[in-house]
């Protein structure tokens, strides 16, 4: 690291100096939060909307991040993004979703107008302005950078940042292999959590919490896990025969489906339920391999028969690296399992609150009619209407935020082997706060954009 970079890191408050220890103040200190607002969010690609939210010409959404607002609109020339501010006196032009095909955007203050391409079409009483103030280049809506991937529009306020695909790195190809661009919404929920945005993300960056937080899944883990052995009770289902193992896998998938939604779709469970009588080897490992091989084949066959644009599940499972949770820095997740996925987006509101959104996504037949959500169903974070698994996580997070304020709690204490994703992205965050060069940050982001339970890794600084 150069002397200049070392000096820049010295200016970062509560920086990570030991990758296994994350200072607790990073999750509530106001000055640290303000530094994120200044150094991180204006320079990173952010998932602004799913393109199916704006399917028709003139459809638009408003994407907000802290004090910034962007309009993402579907035009006859493709999807575009504009800063959401009147070029006269700065009034926001759009709130929420809508369609502006017939009248464009009209400022509610003085009536200035713009078409859906962002071009100014009307200035009331333009003769009272100096002509140079009304130059078209100055009064057209200010464009915001927008690029597309996985069926989503991503925005970036930094025109010098590397492209979206350069920033994503290898994770893009892993998700492309699973036809992420063809996924469609089943449902969309949101909530305001009394939790720092980073804390909200970290619950989904490791599986270590499953035993206690999600015991219904742990009990259905047919082959146990890597955290313990039979003697300590952390591998509850070792010793099963082949048929018991088969049924345990199907029960696990069914519970994951009901508890998570998109991670395993109802259509996939319907196929699996018909497999309970299949012949499998007597040993658990052989039964597991037989189950997955047959399940991939049958789910694929069922999907193709229904006109679903399903990828070759068995081929992808064999050839493409798999993680049940994939993270895209700074705030976006995709959770694949078979063909469907869940998805998360987390946005900071204050130093100790965030907006957390969940999508259930599925591959559906092309052209199938569906009542696609236009906005999330907003629920209280402790609502019983959330699916079981996020409901259990949401219970823990506010308690964790409170616990961080204990005078005796100084650091998160991370497993170097299974909680490394937390350390990896936190150190990348420090790189942004230190103002490292974009090439260095992009290389680090390619490493950080990975699957959960990743060990602590060298990200280059």
Question: What's the CATH class label of the largest domain?
Answer: Alpha Beta
How large is the radius of gyration?
A: 24 Å
CATH arch. level architecture of the largest domain = Alpha-Beta Complex
- Identify the strand order in the major beta sheet: 13-14-15-16-12-17
Ordered list of secondary-structure elements with their pairings:
Layout (H helix, E strand, L loop, with lengths): L2 H8 L10 E3 L6 H10 L6 E5 L8 E7 L2 E8 L2 E6 L14 E2 L5 E2 L6 E2 L5 E3 L13 H4 L5 E5 L2 E5 L7 H5 L2 H6 L6 E11 L3 H6 L7 H4 L1 H4 L23 H19 L5 H8 L10 H22 L7 H7 L6 E3 L3 E5 L4 E10 L2 E11 L13 E2 L9 H16 L7 E3 L6 H15 L3 H11 L13
Parallel strand pairs: 12-17
Antiparallel strand pairs: 1-18, 2-11, 3-4, 3-6, 4-5, 7-8, 8-9, 10-11, 12-16, 13-14, 14-15, 15-16
Helix pairs in contact: 1-14, 2-14, 9-10, 9-11, 10-11, 14-15
Structure description:
By secondary structure, the chain is an alpha+beta fold. The protein has three domains: 3-46 and 170-204 and 324-448, Naphthalene 1,2-dioxygenase Alpha Subunit, Chain A, domain 1 (Alpha-Beta Complex); 48-149, Rieske [2Fe-2S] iron-sulphur domain (Rieske Iron-sulfur Protein); 210-319, no CATH class. It has 15 helices and 18 strands. The strands form five sheets. The chain has a six-stranded mixed sheet. Strands 5-4-3-6 form a four-stranded antiparallel sheet, with no helix packed on it. Helix 14 packs antiparallel against helix 15. The longest helix has 22 residues, at 284-305. The model is unreliable at 229-234 (pLDDT under 50).
């Amino acid at each position: 690291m150069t002397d200049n970079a070392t000096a820049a890191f010295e200016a970062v408050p509560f920086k990570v100096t030991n990758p296994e220890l994350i200072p607790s103040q990073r999750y509530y200190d106001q000055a640290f939060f303000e530094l994120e607002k200044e150094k991180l969010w204006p320079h990173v690609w952010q998932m602004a909307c799913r393109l199916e939210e704006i399917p028709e010409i003139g459809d638009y959404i408003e994407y907000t991040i802290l004090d910034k607002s962007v309009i993402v609109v579907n035009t006859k020339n493709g999807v575009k993004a504009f800063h959401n501010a009147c070029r006269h006196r700065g009034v926001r032009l759009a709130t929420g979703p809508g369609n502006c095909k017939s009248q464009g955007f009209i400022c509610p203050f003085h009536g200035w107008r713009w078409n859906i391409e962002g071009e100014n079409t009307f200035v009331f009483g333009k003769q009272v302005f100096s002509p140079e103030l009304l130059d078209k280049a100055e009064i057209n809506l200010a464009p915001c950078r927008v690029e597309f991937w996985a069926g989503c529009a991503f925005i970036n306020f930094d025109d010098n940042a590397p492209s979206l695909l350069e920033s994503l790195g290898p994770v893009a190809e892993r998700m492309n292999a699973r036809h992420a661009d063809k996924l469609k919404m089943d449902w969309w929920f949101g909530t305001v959590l009394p939790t720092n945005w980073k804390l909200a993300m970290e619950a989904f960056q490791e599986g270590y919490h499953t035993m206690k937080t999600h015991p219904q899944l742990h009990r259905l883990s047919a082959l146990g896990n890597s955290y313990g052995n039979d003697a300590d009770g952390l591998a509850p289902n070792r010793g099963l025969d082949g048929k018991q193992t088969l049924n345990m896998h199907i029960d696990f998938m069914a519970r994951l489906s009901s508890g998570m939604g998109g991670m395993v779709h109802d259509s996939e469970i319907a196929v699996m339920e018909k497999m309970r009588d299949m012949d499998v080897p007597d040993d658990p490992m052989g039964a597991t391999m037989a189950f997955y091989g047959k399940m991939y084949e049958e789910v694929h066959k069922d999907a193709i028969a229904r006109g679903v644009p399903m990828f070759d599940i068995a081929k992808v499972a064999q050839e493409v690296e798999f993680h049940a949770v994939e993270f895209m820095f700074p705030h976006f997740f995709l959770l694949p399992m078979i063909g469907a996925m869940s998805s998360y987006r987390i946005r900071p509101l204050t130093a100790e609150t965030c907006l957390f959104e969940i999508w259930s996504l599925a591959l559906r037949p092309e052209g199938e009619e569906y009542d696609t959500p236009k906005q999330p169903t907003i629920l209280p974070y402790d609502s019983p209407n959330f699916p079981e698994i996020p409901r259990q996580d949401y219970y823990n997070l506010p308690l964790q935020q409170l616990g961080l304020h204990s005078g005796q709690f100084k650091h998160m204490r991370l497993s170097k082997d299974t909680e490394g994703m937390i350390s990896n992205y936190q150190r990348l965050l420090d790189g942004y706060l230190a103002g490292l060069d974009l090439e260095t940050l992009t290389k680090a982001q390619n490493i950080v954009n990975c699957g959960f339970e990743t060990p602590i890794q060298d990200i280059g600084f």
